[in-house]
Specification:
Blueprint: E1 22-29, E2 35-40, H1 45-51, E3 74-78, E4 97-98, H2 104-107, H3 115-128, H4 145-151, E5 155-156
């Protein structure tokens, strides 16, 4: 699940071996040991919070999706109870739609996105895979510069 930094291995990879990809996740807020952690791609937020020593007594644990899989460069922010305000792009207090994981209903809450464009986004994701940057939305049928300008500040990638 979680690996520590190891020296590079010069041995050739056999064709039947699985290549594991490590990612870096930044843990902030009401945890005992905030910092950057290197973990295997796909581990859950709950595992990274555990690596960070767990929640502090002041943590608002309900603000964090513990079941979410981590991705490279992800920030996991745990607010304190009663903390107000929004931290853009940080899981735990963000109001942005995570475009690669959104449901049709969530997509339809975005400005300029109705049922047809929501379906086009979901179809794109199914056929082409995840968006790597916000601008990739311009490749979706029916989404032009005008619509993209309306929704770019409302979405998060990854």
């Amino acid at each position: 699940m979680v690996q520590e930094n190891n020296e590079p291995n010069d041995e050739p990879i056999k064709s039947d071996e699985v290549i594991e990809e490590n990612v870096f996740v930044d843990v902030k807020g009401a945890v005992h040991a905030p910092g950057v952690y290197e973990v295997e791609l796909g581990v859950r937020v709950v595992d990274v919070i555990e690596l960070a020593g767990g929640f502090t007594e002041e943590a608002d644990e309900l603000a964090v999706n513990l079941a979410q899989q981590v991705q490279d460069e992800m920030v996991i922010y745990t607010p304190s109870l009663g903390e107000e305000g929004e931290v853009d792009g940080i899981q735990g207090t963000t109001e942005k739609i995570r475009i690669n994981y959104a449901t049709k209903e969530e997509l339809e809450t975005l400005p300029g996105i109705g049922p047809a464009k929501a379906e086009a986004i979901l179809q794109y994701l199914e056929e082409q895979g995840s968006f790597q940057k916000k601008e990739d939305l311009l490749q979706v049928s029916g989404i032009g510069e005008k619509v993209f300008t309306q929704l770019k500040d409302e979405i998060q990638v990854p």
